[in-house]
Design a protein that fits this description.
Length: about 325
């Protein structure tokens, strides 16, 4: 049996890695894809490994493995450094027949392994991308990022503030303009009035986080979210005079890259879930204070709907650069 090896940190795995791995798998009976990691990696190792598993789950000859990188010594010259690698590989895996790589370490590493070296697109002409470039500017290299990885890099934008300030309409409109997804105010799908329980509030909190995770999978670079867990906490406190502890846990489960706080300087539109028209200034103060006590920066959005749209688009365009 001919056994091959591909190594990498896969921070993150991208189209170039995938092409290398598929090429290597065609050249051998079994291919070990060895992902090394350290506790200080910028992307969680378990998450990175789950991407590899998902990408190659249908390829029975590809054997992903995850190893702690506690053996490398970057201070060594490449010949000595790759000997350290080879010694580790020999201790960890069955004998390797072919090493596949796109890197300059390929020849000395293969030599120390006692294996052949098959180079693949070393100049990266067919797929001009690298993991470091993706980390620095994911949107520039979006087409090289596998769909399973993209949710990690999706920027989440929260439209936040009191009732009847245009958040829902703006979320839908921005999603259309930027050809992406939006997360609606999930509470409106679960309750029909402002008579609800703490159990209802918890369901709303969980449903909102689940919807964000779902929509992030198909979002195009950015995801617009109508409200957040802080909003659910505010209304829980207002109507029920209590906030379930789980809502604070759910708040930490989602990181928003940008907050827009919507002003109340637009006409009030009543409906079955809006009954605080007489407390608009007070509620705006509550929403603002909730962000400021968490040291969350925000963009304050005011003016006509046309002015708001222009303001939001300017900020979002800067985020996408």
């Amino acid at each position: 049996m001919k056994r091959g090896l591909v190594i990498g940190k896969f921070l993150p795995i991208h189209a170039g890695h995938i092409a290398l791995i598929k090429f290597a798998a065609q050249q051998c009976d079994e291919l070990i894809v060895s992902m090394s990691y350290t506790p200080h990696d910028v992307i969680d190792p378990s998450l990175r490994f789950s991407w590899i598993i998902e990408l190659f789950t249908k390829y029975t000859s590809i054997k992903p493995a995850m190893v702690l990188d506690n053996f490398d010594d970057e201070s060594l010259p490449l010949p000595e450094r790759t000997k350290v690698w080879a010694d580790f590989i020999k201790r960890t895996y069955p004998p390797i027949d072919i090493l596949f790589s796109s890197e300059e370490y390929g020849d000395p590493f293969a030599h120390h392994l006692g294996a052949l070296h098959q180079s693949f697109d070393p100049e990266r002409k067919s797929l001009p991308v690298s993991a470091s470039r993706i980390r620095q500017n994911p949107f520039q290299y979006w087409d090289f990022i596998p769909s399973v990885v993209r949710p990690y890099f999706v920027k989440k934008i929260c439209f936040y503030g009191p009732e009847s300030t245009g958040k829902s309409t703006m979320a839908k409109k921005m999603a259309t303009i930027y050809q992406t997804e939006f997360v609606p105010e999930v509470a409106r799908e679960l309750i029909a009035s402002n008579v609800f329980s703490l159990e209802d509030i918890v369901k709303i909190g969980h449903a909102h986080v689940e919807r964000i995770e779902e929509k992030a999978k198909s979002a195009n670079r950015i995801l617009f979210c109508d409200t957040d867990a802080i909003t659910t906490q505010i209304y829980s406190q207002h109507y029920l005079h209590a906030v379930p502890e789980v809502l604070y846990t759910l708040e930490k489960a989602v990181h928003y890259d940008l907050y827009f706080l919507f002003d109340i300087d637009v006409a009030w539109v009543a409906d079955d879930l809006r009954d605080l028209g007489h407390q608009r200034e007070a509620m705006l103060a509550v929403f603002r204070e909730a962000l400021e006590k968490r040291n969350i920066p925000y963009v304050f959005v005011s003016g006509t709907y046309e002015v708001r749209e222009a303001m939001i688009r300017t900020v979002v365009d800067q985020l996408l650069r």
